[in-house]
Target: Methyltransferase domain-containing protein
Amino acid sequence: MTTATSTPAGAAGAPGHEPVLGDPFGAVLRRCWEGGGGRDLAFEVVERDDGFIIAQDAGKYFEPRDQWPQTEQWAVERAQGRVLDVGCGAGRHGLALLESGHEVLGVDSSPGVVEVARERGLDVVQAEFTGLPEGIGRFDTFLLLGNGTGLLGTPERARAILDALAEVAAPGALLFGDGLDVPTPPDRLSYEQWNSERGRPEGFVRIRLRDRLLASDWFEYAMIPPSDLDRILEGTRWELKSVEKSAVHYLATLRLRD
Model:
């Protein structure tokens, strides 16, 4: 026999209350991984601060190499030496490089994601991208994939991240970052207008991740077109070497300045 229960007034998740602050991305990847890592097992929900919501199949974080966007395949093919996979997620890029004989370290801020990637065989540290732990050594290649340029956020945060990576970069190191180069979709035109009215820069969205009653902190996600990369790199130790496109994706290759 089952007994019906009610949510106490004022409890997290009750009508009119905010979700519980936690690690929704880690929870989604855990559910997908335990279900076999395929499609239609778990969905990553992204909520914009104007209420717009989309859901994305988490199975993409476990896809084999031949199913990745071409830009991600290019980056992994061109990686050299010791690799730091920044925002490694479930570890699909790092694991492919391990199979190719590279020494790879992943870094992600989500404790749940770190656990999943470790279980899959990747060496991972839990850290913010601007607070890499001491003693991790130097790297010849940095990966910022899966629309990773968006995680750079505001120009100020982007420079802080790039400066932190430069501190652990070997001479001549390369950084591969991919993003989307598409016209502003109709659903974002009114949002861009709202941003302008609030004095916020064009091309940035404030989002959080959701899973059931869990939510992440709000954070800035950047829609950085290739034409803005030089501006983002101003004042950093990185220079833009090339930008290549495949369909709606682009791959930016950065090189550490001498």
Q: What stands out?
A: The domain at 20-35+43-256 is CATH 3.40.50.150 (Rossmann fold).
